[in-house]
Amino acid sequence: MESSSLIPFSLIFCSILLSFASNGIEARRLQYISHLISEDLFDSIFLHKDDNACPARNFYTYDSFIQATEVFPLFGNTGNLDTRKREIAAFLAQISHETTGGWATAPDGPYAWGLCFKEEMNPPSIYCDSTNTQWPCYPGKSYKGRGPIQLSWNYNYGPAGKALGFDGLRNPEIVANNSLIAFETAIRFWMTEQKPKPSCHDVLVGKYVPTEADLAGNRTAGYGLVTNIINGRLECGRPNDTRVNDRIGFFKRYAQLFNVDTGPNLDCDNQKPF
Ligand SMILES: *[C@@H]1O[C@H](CO)[C@@H](O)[C@H](O)[C@H]1NC(C)=O
Ligand SMILES: *[C@@H]1O[C@H](CO)[C@@H](O)[C@H](O)[C@H]1NC(C)=O
Ligand SMILES: *[C@@H]1O[C@H](CO)[C@@H](O)[C@H](O)[C@H]1NC(C)=O
């Protein structure tokens, strides 16, 4: 009795596993991020990105964000559930600071206005480093801040375009014209180590191994170190920096919406810049 009832059970069990295996791998690859960040959560994070007041209105869509993550399978997909949620929250917080339209008394607070801008409004220059011969500036082009991470400089547009399949030197405008490419430039920045800087991703998923110089400079893992990677030369190693506080404010709000703690070392006020 027992053994004959076991056989059909295990067959059913196997066929369930098989149907998961055939659909599951593709489905998980395509849907994993959307399990952690639904469109509703995305909308409640970016309450005002499509307001008339925002120059980037209707540019940064949920779908283009999700599609861009598929190019980087490890993004938000490394470590335990809390680690994954924290990484996504931190990424969204940093790009929010880079593109914020918020102010102290803004509706819903200053941290509800991320992704309001898609390009730098009053660039002080065309961000051309003419000494860089590997990624020479194209005449008439500006390499000002564009997209969620505000990609800037010829030496960043060139490699980003090469890696993602666009001509970053001749067509830098595409980063503010194509939202999939825009998100891809931001996630690529996040995932890419640029020695001596580790990648933001490695810092948040526990893969960062500090060097002697890192230890001497208090560069311990946490959101503050990510800020240091992004703009530490201007913002870190000084007390109570307004820009750093803004980055932290976004992260605290988003971590709460993701229902995850922020982790240690939020600030970079005691860190030496790279
Ligand atoms: C988008 O591309 C058009 C040309 O196709 C250009 O006129 C426009 O300035 C671009 N917009 C941005 C934001 O770069
Ligand atoms: C490291 O942090 C400690 C404690 O906050 C501080 O006293 C020290 O000056 C920091 N070192 C550097 C290199 O900033
Ligand atoms: C930090 O700066 C803000 C103004 O940006 C100020 O209101 C606050 O008192 C300062 N906090 C500390 C601890 O200095």
UniProtKB/TrEMBL annotation:
CDD domains named among the record's database cross-references: chitinase_GH19
Gene3D superfamilies the UniProt entry points to: 1.10.530.10, Endochitinase, domain 2
Location of the active site: 98 (proton donor)
GO MF, any single term: chitinase activity
Signal sequence, renumbered to the chain: 1-27
Keywords, in A-Z order: Disulfide bond, Signal
SUPFAM superfamilies named in the record: Lysozyme-like (SSF53955)
Record-level GO BP terms: carbohydrate metabolic process; cell wall macromolecule catabolic process; chitin catabolic process
UniProt keyword Lyase, yes or no: no
Annotated InterPro entries: Glyco_hydro_19 (IPR016283), Glyco_hydro_19_cat (IPR000726), Lysozyme-like_dom_sf (IPR023346)
Disulfide bonding pattern of the chain: 54-116, 128-137, 236-268
Occurrences of domain Glycoside hydrolase family 19 catalytic (ranges): 54-76
Record-given protein name: Chitinase 10-like
Organism: Durio zibethinus
